[in-house]
Design goal:
Blueprint: H1 41-46, H2 49-58, H3 60-74, H4 88-103, H5 113-121, H6 123-126, E1 128-138, E2 141-150, E3 155-157, E4 163-166, E5 173-174, E6 181-185, H7 203-209
Antiparallel strand pairs: 1-2, 1-6, 3-4, 4-5
């Protein structure tokens, strides 16, 4: 930070590495809660978004458009690229990743990785998608042995955008290390960590079309 006379100002030691304008410090009542309510109007008003979104997606017109998008997505070619091709460790990590994608299939069942990536990309329709990553030792390396698609209604976010898993504990939800889940979100912000669900914009046309 510099003043008008270009002299450097040193920040106070007690502020180093700390946020002073985080969402959890704005005084809003829900910041006292562990989980932040989803601001999406459909989720807030009807509380059955997953069922409604599934019904909207089953509409002949909507599913036709989604299948077209999905077909275009699956036509893409993918490859693993090292973060730094000049660095031996980066290249070794890329080689391990490539080997794992081709050979380390969970339970000896071939995994359609394009389908997994499509599930993650489909967060644009529902705002967010969560995949659980199960880790284990494989040939001397700690590698993910499963990448599992999970239901959205099992998760919430706190005011800092951290993922919370709903459970039967006294708190009602629990936070796990970031590497335990792969979270995909569409247009998420600090005020809406759940992301923007495109299917929300189809709600009223769908409601009138189906007679409520």
């Amino acid at each position: 930070m510099a003043t008008n006379d270009n002299k450097l100002i040193k920040p106070a030691k007690e502020l180093l590495g700390k946020e002073v304008a985080a969402a959890g410090k704005d005084g809003v009542w829900f910041n006292q809660l562990m989980a932040m309510p989803n601001p999406d109007p459909i989720l807030r008003r009807i509380g059955v978004a997953d069922a409604v979104y599934a019904s909207i997606m089953a509409d002949a017109h909507v599913i036709g458009d989604i299948r077209s998008i999905r077909g275009s997505f699956r036509s893409y070619r993918t490859r693993v690229v090292a973060g730094d091709e000049q660095d031996a460790r980066s290249q070794a990590a890329a080689d391990l990743c490539e080997y794992w994608l081709q050979h380390c299939q969970p339970n000896a069942v071939a995994v359609d990785w394009m389908e997994v990536m499509w599930q993650m990309s489909s967060a644009i329709f529902t705002g967010y998608k969560v995949h659980e990553v199960v880790w284990d030792f494989v040939d001397g390396h700690i590698l993910p042995i499963k990448v599992l698609d999970r239901k959205n209604n099992r998760f919430k976010f706190d005011h800092d955008g951290n993922l919370l898993v709903l459970n039967s504990s006294s708190l009602g939800c629990e936070r796990f290390p970031d590497y335990q889940f792969a979270v995909s979100r569409h247009m998420a912000t600090c005020t809406n960590p759940y992301g923007v669900a495109l299917l929300s914009s189809c709600y009223w046309p769908w409601l009138f079309k189906t007679g409520g």
